[in-house]
């Protein structure tokens, strides 16, 4: 698509992988024909001619499988086809437009095959391998379950951890499997189950391990993340700070786990509207990660994403967009194409464009985010509700109130099913629906929804939070109209 190609242009010099068997041709005209047809049939698509430089020595040394199938394929020599194995990795060298009489959306992208001796790739791969071996040292199902968590497949990981728990034979296994089961539940959006699993893991660790053991800190961190997702920010902050306190005692000053605790504290401050404290915590987290992690590690992307969120909330949109795009660039390299974190990046970029008044770009980013979420997440996950809210915001500002109302109501329907009754996100849903009714001139309905939002925000947020002032103004405005 045009959008995906725009993102590719931003990652020039980076790595890309084809996540399927890659059919190529030595006949340029055959390839140009396919690229031209794709661009000509759909105005939202770009035709790309990939020009690949393949060093056979790299294939031999790195055991990259490829085959000349020109004589055995369906077209029997007409396409001079070379087939590469899945997950073949290339570096993006150069991107240029092709002047063509049939379409103005034809481009050529020069790629170079990357072998196993590529330093950047090896550094990231080695770090991921070390992390898997550290967090899931028992080979087999345990490692597979952990990898499923890391690549954004929590539902599959949950099934494995339930089986592993039944077979656990030591306190270490029981505490670890409960911990990771909690992680899976948290990612799925089943927060009460996540909290139960994390607390069960912590109970075992408190009995089996000495005080201030790093595993205690890991438990407090994850418990904090559940409270954060449930909108209980004071409990979340307490858990995150306990995690940081233990890690400062137990770990070296630039250990990557410290970054996680600072990040959690930043999350809470950001949602409480204390942006300077949030930015300070996020920047300390990023500082540690830059020392401890390879340059394209997904955890770095999370830091850039969080810093972008603070800048966005402070109204510094150019800084926010720069941070979000850096996050997306890393995630596109390091994560599978339908990982939920990619959806988060697209959604955040959409929010910046929305705030800048670029509604078509915002809608495109929001819809891409929703598209990934529908593949990667359960149908009633809270992140889907956030996307429907974002899309509703764009339609509302474009004056398409019926579409906006439909999106907002879909968001509210999901949030009612999965969130506690006084969660701040429910107030956001009510406020959004109220704003549509206000614009449609249905003031009594608008007032009803605004008052529901006000009631929840007063219970769940600090009294000086900007959302409380916002809904107060909304209620005053609608009363003037009645």
UniProtKB/TrEMBL annotation:
TPR repeats lie at residues 175-208, 217-250, 259-292, 301-334, 343-376, 385-418, 427-460. PROSITE patterns: TPR, TPR_REGION, TR_MART. It holds the Pfam family TPR_12. SUPFAM superfamilies: ADP-ribosylation (SSF56399), HCP-like (SSF81901). Keywords: Repeat, TPR repeat. Gene3D superfamilies: Tetratricopeptide repeat domain (1.25.40.10), Toxin ADP-ribosyltransferase, Chain A, domain 1 (3.90.176.10). This is Tetratricopeptide repeat protein.
